[in-house]
């Protein structure tokens, strides 16, 4: 980072990568460029930033890939041409109105992003559910957090992360499962590392089919077979019960479902569970011992549990461990789902998914729908959920959906079974792409391209994984004719003739969102931009809340369920992922690497970050590689029932025989899309959360031979 010059203006913001939500100070130099430093006063990171955050300014200063003006074409065979904002939006309005009139409101859809600011989420959700009259508004958060959202609701009554990051320093046992926070949530993990360094007796259990950097801090690594998380969690639950390490008072007075749970977990012997999971009975016993001895116990997880055909059940089986031990609603304890995106939580607050309503209201509840409809003075809101992320592209493919508006996301790298999504966009009658960069593959399919402002070029708010709401300053002007996403949506809504979109600025949008949360579980009626400009706060934040908000939920052991008791769900340990066979004998799992983020549209611009791992690869165990005559650096062909990937082989004992790993980040590079992991992944989803199964599909592997 450069040292700020004497003509520097400094403003605060929040890192726009992961859900840790680190505070940054952005220095604006006289030449218009910015530099970034960690905010020492910010409670999340106390000045620390990871490799991605510390290099954030490069992504903003480099304008070489920016979309600068709206573009449009009148038919698919024409080239895109520069047009005015009015022309681009007028045409979009005309096409949307035609489809809505001819085929109904469910013929159009918005596909947005966990990177949108809360205000952006709010207006697009209001536009779609309240005025177009369809619930077809979903975001890429469906791909990462929707299983956790559903599980929180089922277990605690609402989508509520109960604890705060400061609980890390109060815990003495961590159960980290389906996550590699050392690489993917680094600053949070540094807090765990520092806590362990100061208190060597605290215990860290890591559950992962791979040996990751997170494992280097672990007292115990349970290298389970992919997909067997529920069996493992149940076995540990059984051991906790057998050892008497459960909280009888909490179970009796504050929870329901223990009898069914207990009966279920005793159905499998420990030996059976150990065999299914591929770990030893001794290690399971050790895990139960560490948890049983803990005064403060935190479970921490992310995509390894969420991205599964049984993602909700995996989440529930984990939250059960907190509930039976009474480790929720007290200092140093609780379930902590780590969000991959910076504002996935803010999107959930405004109800920005196809099955949600604002402020945790229930789409199925007629009173809740009426409340929102009256507040917006819009159309009746439909009770049926709209199309979710993967369903939108399936509906474009089979013709049910005619038009899609893609906002701030890159589905042709990030969606599973991406060939289907590609085919769907080819068939789509009308595609709008609202984007910052000229790189995403979706642009090739766009009928209208709308240039959007990037991070630091607009103001707004975000919420991190611990319910902390922060204000992001606008620091510089967007280039060319690019506009903030909320303004684009409001301009479109006004041209559609809808009332309620004449906000003067983001602050007014936020104020409306705040009013809609009153008397709900996330009540932030004490909040406005002035408060947030002073400091970040954790919701709920009522008028008389403490200055920092609410650090911990459920301190009174009253949950949001009708009985006010938490629910222990006895979930089966069956899983329904695509199975291996003779044709496709390997299990593929996908994930992140340390210095890239999502589809690399930002991190891929930073030379320093590209040095870590320069190209995609497949991790394979040397035992498997020997059988395939595959050597380190050879090109491997990974094929599934859906497509093919060709990348170099990386031989490592850090992955189990029979399992291979592909990073998720690479898409089409110079016309070559064979690095793209999602050519082979499966679009099977969890039946409740509709989250796809990125962590388990059957593949065939062979050494590439030149034709
Ligand atoms: Fe940004 Fe996440 Fe790194 Fe913090 S940990 S600097 S929020 S990428």
From TrEMBL:
<keyword id="KW-0285">Flavoprotein</keyword>
<protein>
    <submittedName>
        <fullName>Molybdopterin-dependent oxidoreductase</fullName>
    </submittedName>
</protein>
<keyword id="KW-0500">Molybdenum</keyword>
<keyword id="KW-0274">FAD</keyword>
<feature type="domain" description="4Fe-4S Mo/W bis-MGD-type">
    <location>
        <begin position="8"/>
        <end position="64"/>
    </location>
</feature>
<keyword id="KW-0560">Oxidoreductase</keyword>
<keyword id="KW-0534">Nitrate assimilation</keyword>
<keyword id="KW-0004">4Fe-4S</keyword>
<keyword id="KW-0411">Iron-sulfur</keyword>
<keyword id="KW-0408">Iron</keyword>
<keyword id="KW-0479">Metal-binding</keyword>
<comment type="similarity">
    <text>Belongs to the prokaryotic molybdopterin-containing oxidoreductase family. NasA/NapA/NarB subfamily.</text>
</comment>
């Amino acid at each position: 980072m450069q040292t700020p010059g004497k003509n520097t203006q400094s403003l605060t913001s929040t890192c726009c990568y992961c859900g840790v939500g680190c505070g940054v100070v952005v220095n604006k130099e006289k030449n218009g460029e910015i530099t970034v430093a960690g905010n020492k006063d910010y409670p999340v990171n106390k000045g620390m930033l990871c490799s991605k955050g510390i290099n954030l300014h490069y992504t903003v200063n480099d304008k070489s890939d920016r979309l600068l003006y709206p573009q449009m074409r009148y038919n698919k065979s024409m080239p895109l041409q520069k047009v005015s904002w009015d022309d681009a939006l007028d045409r979009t309005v005309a096409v949307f109105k035609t489809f809505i009139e001819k085929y109904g409101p469910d013929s159009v859809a918005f596909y947005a992003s966990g990177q949108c600011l809360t205000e952006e989420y709010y207006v697009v959700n209001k536009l779609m559910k309240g005025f177009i009259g369809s619930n077809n508004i979903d975001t890429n958060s469906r791909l990462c957090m929707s299983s956790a959202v559903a599980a929180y609701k089922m277990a605690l009554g609402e989508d509520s992360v109960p604890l705060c990051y400061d609980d890390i320093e109060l815990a003495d046992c961590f159960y980290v499962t389906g996550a590699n926070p050392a690489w993917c949530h680094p600053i949070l993990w540094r807090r765990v590392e520092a806590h362990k360094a100061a208190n060597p007796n605290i215990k860290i259990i890591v559950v992962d089919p791979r040996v990751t950097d997170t494992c280097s801090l672990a007292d115990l690594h349970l290298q389970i077979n992919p997909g067997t998380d529920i069996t493992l969690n149940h076995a540990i639950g059984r051991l906790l019960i057998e050892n008497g390490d459960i909280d009888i008072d909490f179970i009796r007075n504050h929870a329901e479902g223990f009898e069914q749970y207990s009966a279920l977990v005793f159905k499998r012997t420990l030996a059976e569970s150990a065999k299914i999971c591929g770990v030893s009975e001794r290690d399971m016993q050790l895990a139960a011992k560490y948890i049983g001895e803990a005064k403060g116990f935190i479970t921490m997880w992310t995509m390894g549990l969420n991205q599964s055909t049984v993602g909700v059940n995996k989440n529930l089986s984990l939250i059960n461990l907190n509930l039976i031990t009474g480790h929720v609603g007290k200092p140093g304890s609780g379930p902590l789902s780590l969000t991959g995106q910076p504002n996935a939580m803010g999107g959930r607050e405004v109800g920005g998914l196809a099955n949600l309503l604002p402020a945790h209201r229930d789409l199925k509840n007629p009173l809740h729908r009426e409340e929102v409809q009256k507040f917006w003075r819009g159309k009746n809101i439909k009770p049926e959920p709209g199309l979710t992320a993967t369903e939108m592209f399936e509906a474009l493919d089979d013709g049910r959906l005619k038009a899609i508006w893609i906002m701030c996301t890159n589905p042709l790298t990030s969606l599973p079974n991406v060939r289907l999504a590609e085919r769907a966009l080819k068939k789509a009658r009308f595609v709008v792409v609202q984007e910052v960069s000229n790189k995403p593959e979706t642009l090739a399919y766009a009928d209208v391209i709308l240039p959007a402002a990037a991070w630091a070029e607009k103001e707004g708010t975000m919420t991190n994984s611990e319910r902390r709401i922060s204000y992001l300053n606008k620091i510089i002007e967007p280039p060319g004719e690019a506009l903030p996403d909320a303004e684009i949506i409001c301009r479109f809504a006004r041209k559609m003739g809808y009332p309620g979109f004449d906000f003067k600025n983001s602050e007014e949008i936020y104020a409306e969102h705040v009013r809609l949360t009153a008397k709900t579980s996330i009540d932030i009626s004490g909040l406005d931009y002035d408060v947030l400009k002073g400091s970040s706060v954790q919701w709920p934040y009522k008028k008389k809340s403490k200055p920092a908000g609410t650090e911990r939920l459920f301190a009174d052991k009253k949950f949001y369920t009708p009985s006010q008791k938490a629910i222990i769900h006895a979930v089966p340990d069956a899983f329904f992922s695509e199975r291996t066979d003779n044709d496709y004998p390997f299990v593929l799992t996908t994930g992140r690497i340390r210095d890239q983020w999502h589809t690399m549209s930002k991190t891929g611009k930073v030379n320093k970050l590209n040095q870590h791992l320069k190209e995609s690869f497949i991790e394979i165990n040397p035992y498997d590689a020997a059988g395939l005559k595959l050597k380190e650096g050879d090109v491997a062909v990974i094929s599934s029932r859906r497509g093919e990937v060709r990348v170099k082989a990386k031989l490592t004992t850090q992955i189990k025989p029979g399992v291979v790993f592909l990073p998720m980040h690479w898409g089409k590079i110079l016309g070559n899309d064979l690095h793209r992991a999602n050519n082979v992944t499966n679009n099977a989803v969890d039946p409740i959360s509709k989250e796809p199964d990125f962590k388990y599909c059957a593949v065939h592997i062979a050494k590439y031979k030149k034709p």
